[in-house]
Amino acid sequence: MITQMQNLTDAEHAILNQTWRGKKILSYLQAYGFDYEFCRSFRLTEGEKTGWMLLFNATLMICAEKPVALEETKTFVEMHLPFRIECPASFLPTLVTLPNYQKLRRTMFVLTPQPVSEEFQPEAVQKQPDLTAVYQILHEGFPNLLSYPLWLTDTSHRCRHGISQVLTYRDSTTVTILFDIENHVLVGQVATAVLLLVAADTPEIFCTGWQTSCNNRENMRSCMRWIFASAFTRKSGLKLRTPNGS
After folding, report:
1. Are residues 181 and 23 in contact, defined by beta-carbon separation less than 8 angstroms?
2. CA-to-CA distance for 74 and 176, rounded, in angstroms?
3. Strands (DSSP E) found in the chain
4. What is the DSSP code (8-state) at residue 67?
5. What is the pLDDT of residues 182-211, one digit of tens each?
6. Residue 20 to residues 16, 103, 165, 184: CA-CA distances in angstroms?
7. 140-170: per-residue pLDDT in tens?
8. pLDDT of 26-38, one tens digit each?
9. How sure is the predictor about 240, in pLDDT bands with cuts at 50, 70 and 90?
């Protein structure tokens, strides 16, 4: 069964707070609550199993420890036709059968600790950049990024409420702290202007967007320094994470 939510219990909050996708849903609820038509949350129930969904504009996020209400979820997707679905792997066999949907391959990397480049200039980090300029950088790396009005409305709203923060470096590299919940930080929308990448012979990873989850703020600060420094050097410091962890 799928029911639209009007509140979140303390127990549900505690469960969602255990995973990065659950924290991402919590960050949207913190920003918008339950009263906006473009940001609706739903509870999935099947026997003793429970899951949660959040439909924000054209993105559907699903959080559940176990497969729950799969057929109802499939019907929900058929009705609302979200552009993108973020869900646990256990939902994929059901949802991938829908027409016009396909699984996206995700490549995971591990950031290995290393000294920050001496070329890094902390004073070049802008903590309140022009969001229009940020969107222009992001759009090069995120071809399917939300339209400018939608992106600007959401980003500025989340920044005003202290949930997100947008940073730039030398007016050409940008990162967004999507949320900071109880010392867990999700960093996303990382991109560098393409013309600068070509001129600096920067690693190709910065041509497209990616995101990383940090389990404390100190790791987040290290990640920020690495992103900004690596965008202007040839060393990315990334190691491919293989299934066996090597």
Report:
1. yes
2. 32
3. 2-4, 39-46, 49-56, 59-64, 84-86, 109-111, 125-126, 165-169, 173-181, 184-192, 212-214, 238-240
4. -
5. 878 888 888 888 655 444 444 444 444 445
6. 8, 20, 17, 8
7. 878 778 889 999 999 999 999 999 999 998 8
8. 999 999 999 999 9
9. very low
Question: Count of CB atoms within 10 A of residue 134's CB?
Answer: 23
Query: Which is nearest to 112 in space by CA: 228, 236, 233, 215?
Result: 236
Which residue type, as a one-letter code, is found at position 235?
K
Question: What is the pLDDT at residue 7?
Answer: 95
What one-letter code names the amino acid at 74?
Answer: K
The partner residues of 201 in beta bridges, in order of sequence, read: none
Segment 92-126, tens digit of pLDDT: 999 999 998 988 877 666 666 667 777 778 888 89
Return d(Cα 54, Cα 42) in angstroms, integer: 6
Q: How far is CA 141 from the centre of its chain?
A: 14
227 burial via Cβ count (<10 Å: 0-12, 13-18, 19+): buried
Q: Show the tokens assigned to 95.
A: 């949802």
Q: How far is CA 129 from the centre of its chain?
A: 20
Using left for φ > 0, alpha for ψ between -120 and 50, and beta otherwise, residue 67 falls in beta
Token pair 């980090």: residue? 125
Encoded tokens for 52: 């949660």
